[in-house]
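BUG-301 | component: ligand-complex export | severity: low

The export step for FE2/S2 (inorganic) cluster jobs runs without errors, but we want the raw record kept on the ticket for reference. Input record follows.
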Amino acid sequence: MAVRRLHHQQPASFAFTPENLEWAQMVIARYPEGRQASAVIPLMWRAQEQEGWVSEPCIRVIAEMLEMPNIRVLEVATFYTMFQLAPVGRKAHIQVCGTTPCQLRGAEDLIEICKRRIHHDAFHVSADGDFSWEEVECLGACVNAPMVQVVKDTWEDLTPETFEALLDGFAKGNPPPPGPQNGRTFSMPEGGATSLTDIAAILRGTTHDARPAAGDEQAPTSAARPKETRPEQQVADSPGARAVEGKTPLKPADVAAAEPKLPDTTPAPALAAGTSDGKDPAGMDPAGNAPAGKSPAGANG
Ligand code: FES
């Protein structure tokens, strides 16, 4: 991108019209105290709509209104390419999209027309002062390529013929309505819709009525049924199995009652180092008393 500098010729002063000044003060009031600088872009855009471009006096006026250093406003003006830093055509500044989709669809032909009818070089005003042009990057209407923009409006689906007609319209002060110039609506298919043509179905929210007619309802296929019943389900008589068989679901209490009682395999408590009958291998009784005539192990030293 070329270096963006202020134009070498500048007007002596700038002032918003009373209407635009009132609008600017309304915009500034939207921001909290101390945050008025946030209004710099809308104010500068409004100034460009009024004058066609952003001049150095304009930058100073806006900086003063927003209590900003001049350099901060200048930074914004030179950063964003939507701000014109030099005088443009009185009737139209044509921005031709030259990015790939538009280029493949004929943007170069449109640029050749700009060079022939306006000026050989971009950013130069035509001899009568009415037009200027520039090549810009994608403007977001690629599906309707090629296209041009003038201020906020776009003209799309252009051909050399319709673009020449557009320039003629601006020259007479009566340009054609913005949008596609080949008759299509927005970005619909050229020649009309090829799908979703059943308006009644669209309004119903579906392109075909998939619901079965009354009386045509079919039972769920066997694919929805479990392939086999696990052993534990056979015991517990699971809700899923009962549902498949058309039986009433069991209550949790019934399920618990139906569960088989398994034998208690918990080992019986035994005394430490003792036997299951409670007798010590050394012959001591459950109270730990040695049989008559015997001493506890180790008691003899
Ligand atoms: S490429 Fe031209 S509008 Fe996107």
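Assignee comment: Attached the raw record above. The two ends are 105 Å apart (CA to CA).
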